[in-house]
Amino acid sequence: MWGDFKEDEGTVTVNVGRSLKNRKIMAPFPLADYGKHAVTHYKVLERFGYVTLVECKLETGRTHQIRVHMQHIGHPLFNDATYGGEKILRGTTFAKYKQFVENCFKICPRHALHAKTLKITHPTTKKELSFTSELADDMAQLIDKWRKYSTVKKLDEEEA
């Protein structure tokens, strides 16, 4: 997610429904007058300065729920063109940093979202099904690149 979260964990409870301006995307509706009830719990796993690795657990399963909720609290998904994360949102104006972020976008040319675990109830048998998947290589490379960047940045700040 773009930005450094103030809290280590939190909950977003905001209705999610079709945007009234663009029917192809979803939007948050804080006043609960439109959309469906949606709850996302988040926990910071690792901070990289200008971006943060976050784990989300959903109480509800609305279309684009994580993407909408994170955008709503000011932390759109990294490289999410639909919800505003495809441009440099945090960081410096230096050309070197701009090139770094553009290289990150190339490493992971999609929004940076991975479903590690998915649990659903089968509609016919009512049996609970659980699926897990390993982190995709592009996401692993992206996280590693940010990890190295934030380590070097901290060292530079300590020396200054």
Plain-language structure description:
With 160 residues, the protein is of the alpha+beta class. The protein has a single domain (9-159), classed as Pseudouridine synthase (2-Layer Sandwich), CATH 3.30.2350. The protein has 3 helices and 7 strands. It has helices at 65-72, 95-107, 137-159, and strands spanning 9-13, 15-18, 26-29, 39-47, 52-58, 117-121, 128-132.
Give the topology, please.
Blueprint: E1 9-13, E2 15-18, E3 26-29, E4 39-47, E5 52-58, H1 65-72, H2 95-107, E6 117-121, E7 128-132, H3 137-159
Antiparallel strand pairs: 1-4, 2-3, 4-5, 6-7
The poorly predicted ranges are none
The description of the largest β-sheet is: 3 strands, antiparallel
Report the oligomer: single chain
Radius of gyration over all CA atoms, rounded: 17 Å
Question: What is the string of SSEs from the N terminus onward?
Answer: EEEEEHHEEH
Superfamily at the CATH H level?
Answer: Pseudouridine synthase
The main sheet orders its strands as: 1-4-5
Kindly state the number of beta strands. Answer: 7
Helix content: 25-40%
